[in-house]
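Input record (one chain):
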Amino acid sequence: MSYDPTTHLLLTPEDAEAPRRVVRLRELGIGEAPDPEFDAFARRLAGVTGAPYAMVNFIDEHRQFFAGLHAPDGGEADPARRVLARDHGYCPHVVVRRKALVLEDIRDYPRFAGNPVVDETGIRSYLGAPLIDRTGMTLGTVCVVDHEPRRWGRQGLETIKSMAAELVEQIQLRERGGL
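The corresponding structure, as predicted from the sequence alone:
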């Protein structure tokens, strides 16, 4: 587990499933390169939620990789914007918890307020859901973020969960050779 020694808060949960996840992602052929279908999915997710940023995120032992990315400034073209340290952001919490996470104003949650994405990139709200495949493996997340606090509410939660389920179906179709 990762701790911030100045605040004594747990920052990133231990992820015992990460080595098996890496194997599963390789079996599926996803999570190591940008994917135009995942970019299109992220763009649609941003549109549905009204969020400026949306990601399809796969996580290994050391990093997060945005195989799908939508940014209002066209940041998808910059490979550096597709990688984030595992200790940054909120998706690692979603993966370990295996449950959606709603943070309407990150500053209201001491556990998360010290996360580097708050100070370094100004992220103020987060909405994410896990991608759990047919084997029960949590592959990653779909998520949206904003620089402003957002009232995601029950509707936002239901939307992110249904979009995650839709993407898992797409991944399963790929696995069966249907896409």
